[in-house]
C-alpha cells in the first residue's frame, strides 16, 4: 500500500540579516537628524530672575549718562558684530530714524544711545534647501541677552541713569519681554528707572484694553492680534510662539506705547489667518509677512490725522522724555 508522503510546510522567507542592519541604520540616522534639527534650531530662553535691587546712592560717576536710549532693531536690521554706537549692519533700519536724530541732538553726558547688536534673523523651517539663517529662537534669545546685559551693566555702573526703550518687529518683542520682566521685578533694572517704552509691530500684541495693556497709538488701533498670540502654543524646531505676556506690562503699562499698522500681520493678524492647526503653513505666511509692504513702511505709515509717521511719533515721544528726564548729581 502506498503511503502519502508527509505534507511539507511551505518554506518561510527570511530577510537576510544585512537588510535588518541597513534598516536599523536608516532609522537611527533619521532620529539623529531630527535631534540635531531641534538642538541646532535652539530653544527660546526668556530672561530669568535677577537679584533684588539695592537702594540707589545720592550721586553717580561723572562719566554716566543721565539717560540711556536702548534701541532694538527688527529682523534683518542688525547683526551680532554690529557697532552699538555706530550701527551699520542695515543703513535702512527703521530704528535709525529714531536713534540718529536723538544722538545728534543730545550730548553724550545727557544721552547714551545704544543700538542692540544681535543676529536679527528668522529662518524658514521648511525652506529647501535650508536658508542658512539663524532660527527665530536663537536670534531672539541672543537679542534678549545682549539687551539685558547692557541694561544690567549700565545700571550697576550708573544707578541713577534712567532709560527709554524702543524696538521694532522682533526688536519690539524683545523690548516688550524685557519690560514685562522689569515690571514684574525680575528685570535688569528697577521699574522706577524706566521713563517709557515704545514697541512698533509687536508680535505679542493682544489688542486688548485693561490692566497691564499698553497705550495704543492710532485712531482707532487695528483689531487684530500679534502673530505670536494667534499662533500661541506652536513649537517647531527653532520657532516657539509664546502667546501673550502673562500680566502684560504690569505697573509699567501706562508708560508703554504700542504702534501697529492696520493689515500688518506681525501685529494685526486675524485669528483665522494664522491657524495653529496648520502650523507650518501659518509660519510660512508669518515669515512672508516680515517683508510685506505694510510691515516695511512704518517710516511712512501715519498714526494720526496730522500725518505723523510711526518713526516721527516715536522720535517726538523719546525727545520729550529725554528733555524732561532727571539730572542726577555726579561725583
TrEMBL record:
Name listed for the protein in its UniProt record: Cutinase family protein
PANTHER family cross-referenced by the UniProt entry? CUTINASE 4, CUTINASE RV1984C-RELATED-RELATED
Tell me where on the tree of life, at the top rank, the source sits: Bacteria
Q: Which organism is it from?
A: Nocardia halotolerans
Asked whether the keyword Glycoprotein is assigned, the reply is no
Q: Which SUPFAM superfamilies does the UniProt record give?
A: alpha/beta-Hydrolases (SSF53474)
Please state the span of the N-terminal signal peptide per the UniProt entry. none
Family statement drawn from the similarity comment of this UniProt entry: Belongs to the cutinase family.
Q: Where are the transmembrane segments?
A: 14-40
Short name of one Pfam family for this protein?
Cutinase
- What InterPro entries does this protein map onto? AB_hydrolase_fold, Cutinase/axe
In its keyword annotation, does this UniProt entry include Transferase?
no
